[in-house]
Amino acid sequence: MAHMLKAQRAVAGSRIIGLGHYQPARVLTNDELASMVDTSDEWIRTRTGIIERHIAADGEGVGEMATEAARAAIADAGLDVDGVGMIIVASTSVMDHSPNMAGRVAAALGMTNNPVIIDINTACSGFEHGVAVADAAIRAGQVERVVVIGSEKLSQITDWTDRTTCVLCADGAGAFVLEATDDPGVGPVVWGSEPTMSRAVIVEEESGNKFTQDGRMILRWAMSKASEISRSAVEAAGLTMDDVQVFVPHQANLRIIEPLAEQLGLTDRTVVTDVQVSGNTSAASIPLGLSKWWHEGRIPSNAPTLLFGFGGGFAYASQVVLTPNRKP
Ligand code: ACO
């Protein structure tokens, strides 16, 4: 006899109800980098747009930063920590594997409600993968609220003698709280990977667990493929480019962000360019940039916001989200 299993009652969707972020206090300037390797403020600014970046202290790890960003997002949502039933942490710079990073965050937050704990490693697009997984779990009726965190301590996987990479990398964390709703504020994800480019970004034993990349290959891919993926995400959400008010691409570098905004016809909208003062923080860059600009009052309420993450894997993920209702 064929069996049919009972499924949870599906809900219409999810939306963002809280945003939070954390950056280490220490700021590393281009001039300081120029005293460490053969580079200059001028080279870094013109090739990457980066002016300065934040670097974590000893003892300030992926977990500590993730916890602070989650705490801020949960408080922003007006909840206490047991108000969320699932923690998803996206990171590519995790050095300790068990407990996983989400479990470390649950313990550090002192949660007592047996939350689901999931880690995701799809590098610079990990956060958008996390939002998609959280949204799917909420839609399936498996959980009511999820905190999705991107947290990176890239400084610990950076070769500080390699001028081609050390000028890009930085540390920080950002988080969203998503909640079940009848009025969806997270659009369908457009996601995938390019297996032929799997070695474009590498952190592995053979590279001494340090980050190496084919910068030219990534730049070429972004300029030829990113706009099509982003357009598909806007279409999947039932919108047109005219509806998009905010664009938050992965903060890899300004030489990708600006031309991409131009290709998409979004230069007259709010384009988040936090990379200039935060560097590249991989999975953290999109929630960090959006949360900072949101709390600075630079992003309107209920604004259709296009997220586009890409990087190591070589993986990508893009979706449209609505910003929260701003509390008075
Ligand atoms: N300071 C001074 N000179 C440098 C530096 C530096 N920090 N780094 C490289 N150079 C030199 C190179 O040695 C080379 O010198 P040469 O011509 O004598 O050989 C010259 O500058 C040009 O080097 P390229 O690597 O060709 O520089 P390019 O113009 O491609 O810029 C960059 C490098 C910024 C990484 C570019 O390729 C890029 O924007 N790539 C996109 C990828 C990216 O942003 N990756 C981020 C991490 S992965 C991710 O987040 C998805």
UniProtKB/TrEMBL annotation:
SUPFAM superfamilies: Thiolase-like. NCBIfam families: fabH (TIGR00747), PRK09352.1 (NF006829). Signal peptide: none annotated. Residues 235-321 form the Beta-ketoacyl-[acyl-carrier-protein] synthase III C-terminal domain. One of its GO terms (molecular function) is beta-ketoacyl-acyl-carrier-protein synthase III activity. This is Beta-ketoacyl-ACP synthase III. Residues 118-194 form the Beta-ketoacyl-[acyl-carrier-protein] synthase III N-terminal domain. Belongs to the thiolase-like superfamily. FabH family. Pathway: Lipid metabolism. Its EC number is 2.3.1.180. The keyword Cytoplasm applies. The keyword Signal does not apply. Keywords: Acyltransferase, Cytoplasm, Fatty acid biosynthesis, Fatty acid metabolism, Lipid biosynthesis, Lipid metabolism, Transferase. It comes from the Bacteria. Transmembrane segments: none annotated.
